[in-house]
Amino acid sequence: MEQQETAILIASIVLVVIIILLIFLFLIFQKRKNSLLLQQREAKREFERAIAQTQIEIREETLRNISWELHDNIGQLLTLAKIQIGIAQGQPEKLQEVTDTITKSLTELRSLSKLINPDAIKSLSLSEAIRLEIERFNRLQFIEASMTGNSEVRKLDSQEEIVLFRILQEFFTNTIKHSKATKLTVHTTFTKDKIEIKAEDNGVGFDITNTKTKQGIGLCNIQNRGKLIGAEIGLHSEIGKGTSIKLVYFYKQKPETSPKLSIIET
């Protein structure tokens, strides 16, 4: 009888210990789960903030582009048309030149409307958006630009597309503002699994190990945007031999995916 009571007591103690241990493990699991959920919510908020900031920057860049178009291209064409009209008053045979200039101005206005119309921008694919930039560079004679490669084989998420376009836009801006390049080439490769885009210029290049240079040309921005969607970004530059960027993005990456930014030092 005494042995039975002892066995029951031991079994009760063991049961209580097991219950306490389970409660303890459950509390730990719940705490970790709550912490993970909190981190996920914070990561989602950060991603949304970064996307919003990227959209704002693209909008600001678009407004700058419109300003350049109006001042450096359409404005000059209309000024030329005004001069030609004055000449044509005494030389009627010059009227055709006026007509040609005005026709060209209208064509440029139609191209500019694509930048202004948000619905038109939203309907563009990534390759179409890049091609519009290339055409604009050539039209304004900023640089001799060209684009080769295939178009998308599958549709991108709009947020992914925004980030990828902004990374390339950042590189293009650096090329035009800082590289003193005369040529810019872009090659796109779209497959069912990934996107590969390589852009390169023939500019002066730079010392990629220089911290101030990295910050000045926006490498941090390029890196941070790559982190948003898990894009792999390879940047190469050599003084006197130009700069190139290679962007690789695998479809259906998560924002939390660890990015890779490989900088080839010279």
TrEMBL record:
The keyword Repressor does not apply. One of its GO terms (molecular function) is ATP binding. This is histidine kinase. Its EC number is 2.7.13.3. PANTHER family: NITRATE/NITRITE SENSOR PROTEIN NARX-RELATED (PTHR24421), NITRATE_NITRITE SENSOR PROTEIN NARQ (PTHR24421:SF10). One of its GO terms (cellular component) is membrane. It is an enzyme of class 2 (transferase). It catalyses: ATP + protein L-histidine = ADP + protein N-phospho-L-histidine. Residues 65-253 form the Histidine kinase domain. Pfam families: HATPase_c (PF02518), HisKA_3 (PF07730). InterPro entries: HATPase_C_sf, HATPase_dom, His_kinase_dom, Sensor_HK_TwoCompSys, Sig_transdc_His_kin_sub3_dim/P. It comes from Aquimarina brevivitae. Keywords: ATP-binding, Coiled coil, Kinase, Membrane, Nucleotide-binding, Phosphoprotein, Transferase, Transmembrane, Transmembrane helix, Two-component regulatory system. The keyword Phosphoprotein applies.
